[in-house]
Amino acid sequence: MLGGYSNFYGNTRFAALCLLPNGSFDTLFGTGGWSFSDFYGGTALCNALTVEGDDDIILAGTVYISAGASYQTIGMAKLLSNGAPDNTFGISGIDTSFYGTTSEGCNDIALQSDNKIVIAGYRYTGANSSYLIARYTNSSALIKQISPVIAAGFDLNIYPNPNSGAFVVALSNPLNENTTITITNLIGQVVFADKFSVPENQMNISIVLNTDYPDGIYFVNIRSGDQVITKQLVKQE
Length: 237
Prior knowledge:
mainly beta; 2 domains; four-stranded antiparallel beta sheet; 17 strands; globular
């Protein structure tokens, strides 16, 4: 297994390449031996890779995410042994738990005997730099339990997107059950939550976020009964 980065898709992404013992591409891995991990359209540089005992792969490095300004943070991506994203890890297979106003980067990654993840890198606060070592449980604290995704026949769209914080959630069909809408930022903080009964045949829900929230990427989560769907939202003045 080789880890690095590629701008094949127009923005720089984590890249994993699987080779057979004879040096040829393992075409059963990803697409033609390659697997790419996108971090919200930002620039993602993979600096380290480790393989778990079940042959799943974890890549780690430094990610630059544009949210009005460019923020540098630590990024991790987990792939299944066939190169597909492990969607039970972080958010759809990627993690940016350190995302914030300070700058961090990751240079190396290792697995402990209990399968906990250890990363080593640096943090820069604007005045001083320091070494950074962090340990992830590699359990439910990081590997999130994903709720069932709503089946085909129910979907939603957000428009306009990007937007300045005022937008409409357009449902593909009416919901007749109590519905909860939750909006979170990249580090999982809830910035909006509301629970209401959607009137029969109502297809559009208007939402206005607090103007104090910064530009960036957010996630709109709608739960109706035992069904859940999540869409990405970009706030941009």
